[in-house]
Write a structure and sequence with these properties.
The protein is of the alpha+beta class and 564 residues long. The chain has 16 helices and 15 strands. It is elongated. It starts with a helix and ends with a helix.
């Protein structure tokens, strides 16, 4: 962003060049270049400062403009540039009687400025000769423009600076929009799509107004439609902005009273575009009369909604205001120049372009913040769905799903499953109440979690039953862990009754075999746990087929052999 601002300072710098005086007059029937110059010499033109923005009336036959270079005069190759470029053709007449007509959307092979109309004046033309221009009439009532005459080398430097600045701004806007579209598909959140639509429409507006679509992009197939494209992009940008603000600033939550008019605005602006392109003169005139008031009302409505939402506590609304307010202020100032105010602020158009890039970055940061909040919220919801509310360990469903994934990815690594059941828990509940039972479950779960490794999978299977998956441990290690867990729970000294009986745990152990599933492992470890219960509780037992059969004494073996 700092690079864009640096380029903006270069682009906004005043065009030094050659001093000029200017004069203008409306085109009259029968005018010729020579008769116009004669009228200029007789003082029949209205004078103006060509370096300031001059307001030209487009209705009628057009406008004649005469520019007179002032000393010091040097016969050299020069370039006359018109900024901002008007949407109508402008013709330059030279002293030899030939002419060159340029328009914003043409694709002539001759020199054409980037972001301006540029006419190359050869060194053969006397430096003191007046420069005659004819601005053709157009459909818009008024246009503003300033004129600059520069040496060829100085013009090339100015043009390259503006091209670098504009390219950086457009690149930022397009990159942010494409990133938002990707996030919209990944997160399935239409807020990112509305943002992308708004930013792309604003980039299209600036591309038309600056002529960037035609020079340097040379999209010649858009020639002749600049006005229609620009007005359509303006209306659609407001529709996309309305949808974006509604979702991004959470208007149904913070400003429900403005939700309906903003949605009406979002639906109505595309209808305005359709009517404007209907080719029906009455409808087009009606739309042109209503478009500006609708834009003003819609813009103020969105701004007011964002302010109220921010005051009510909407964090995204703050991002929107930081990004949108500078652009809105500059756009309002730029639009006011059409009425003739601020004629000396010639850089407002480029400032709007820079503000568009700044807004795209700020809103992208807001969207990134929204994505992080969505991710955090989803993580919290997932945690709540996966965690047992009482003991804060995995619940049965989450533990089973995690166990199934681990079994599928474990390869040949050994896996031990421990099935734990608290001894005398029902007696504790009956004698001390469920609150005491809940406290006991919480204490046991905490003790188990502290005793196991972080990557061991601990879960509550139901009631007073827990399960633990030990990854990468052999049978003897699993038995050692289970014995340690028995001792740890017993040392909690949770009383069951008044006779000194304390809470303990019985544990069954099963080792995974190649054909095992989660259900088969749980079943075998559950049976082993019951064998531990039958053996006296507060102990661990292996799966029956894993235990070594007890050795018989020699005398009994001999006696049995004899009986056999």
């Amino acid at each position: 962003m700092l690079g864009i601002l640096a380029l903006a300072l270069l682009a906004f710098a005043a065009h030094a060049g050659t001093a000029l005086t200017g004069a203008a007059r409306k085109v009259m029937p029968g005018d010729t270049p020579q008769s116009v110059l004669d009228a200029y010499r007789r003082g029949e033109f209205a004078s103006f400062d060509p370096h300031l923005l001059q307001r030209f009336s487009r209705p009628g036959l057009g406008t004649w403009v005469v520019l007179q270079p002032q000393p010091p005069l040097v016969n050299e190759e020069r370039v006359l540039s018109i900024y901002p470029p008007p949407l109508v053709p402008v013709t330059l007449f030279d002293a030899g009687g030939s002419s060159l007509t340029l328009s914003l959307d043409d694709s002539l092979a001759s020199t054409h400025g980037n972001g301006r109309l540029a006419y190359r004046i050869s060194a053969d033309t006397p430096a003191s000769a007046p420069i005659l221009l004819k601005i053709e009439p157009g459909t818009v009532n008024h246009a503003v423009a300033s004129f600059h005459l520069q040496p060829w080398n100085e013009y090339l430097q100015t043009d390259s600076q503006w091209l670098a600045f504009a390219s950086a701004c457009f690149a930022v806007m397009v990159a942010m929009a494409l990133m938002a579209l990707c996030l919209a598909m990944m997160l399935r959140d239409s807020t990112f799509a509305w943002y992308a639509g708004y930013v792309l429409c604003y980039a299209l507006i600036q591309g038309v107004q600056t002529g960037y679509l035609f020079h340097p992009l040379e999209l010649t197939w858009l020639a002749g439609n600049a006005g229609m494209i620009g007005s359509s992009a303006v209306a659609l940008s407001l529709a996309f902005a309305a949808m974006f603000v509604s979702r991004f600033c959470e208007l149904p939550r913070y400003v429900p009273v403005l939700q309906t008019p903003i949605m009406a605005l979002a639906v109505g602006m595309p209808l305005v575009v359709l009517l404007d392109n209907s080719q029906v003169a009455v409808l087009q005139q009606t739309v042109q009369a209503l478009l500006t008031p609708l834009l003003v009302i819609g813009t103020l409505l969105l701004l007011g909604a964002a302010i109220v939402a921010a005051v009510q506590g909407s964090r995204p609304a703050g991002f929107f205001l930081v990004g949108w307010t500078p652009l809105l202020a500059l756009t309002a100032l730029y639009s006011s120049q059409m009425t003739g105010v601020l004629p000396d602020v010639t850089w407002l158009g480029d400032a709007c372009l820079a503000a568009g890039a700044f807004e795209a970055i700020v809103l992208s940061l807001g969207l990134a913040d929204r994505a992080l909040m969505m991710r955090r919220d989803r993580h919290m919801v997932q945690e709540l769905a996966d965690t047992d509310a009482l003991t804060n360990v995995l619940n049965r469903r989450a533990w089973t799903e995690s166990m199934r994934k681990l079994l599928g990815n474990a390869g040949s690594q050994p896996i031990a499953l421990l099935f734990l059941d608290l001894d005398h828990f029902k007696m504790l509940n009956d004698r001390q109440g469920h609150a005491a039972g809940d406290r006991a479950l919480v204490a046991v779960a905490e003790a188990l979690r502290n005793e196991l490794r972080p990557h061991d999978l601990l879960g509550r299977y139901g009631g007073e039953e827990f399960v633990a998956m030990l990854f990468g441990v052999q049978q003897n290690q699993a038995m050692q862990v289970a014995t340690r867990l028995c001792r740890r729970v017993h040392r909690l000294d949770i009383p069951v009754n008044q006779t000194g009986l304390v809470l303990s745990v019985s544990i069954g152990i099963a080792m995974r075999e190649p054909e095992d599933t989660v259900d088969s492992l749980v079943e075998r470890s559950d049976l082993a746990m019951y064998r531990a219960k039958l053996a006296g509780r507060n102990r661990a037992r292996l799966d029956e087929k894993l235990e070594t059969p007890p050795r018989r004494s020699w005398p009994r073996a001999v006696e049995n052999d004899r009986k056999g």
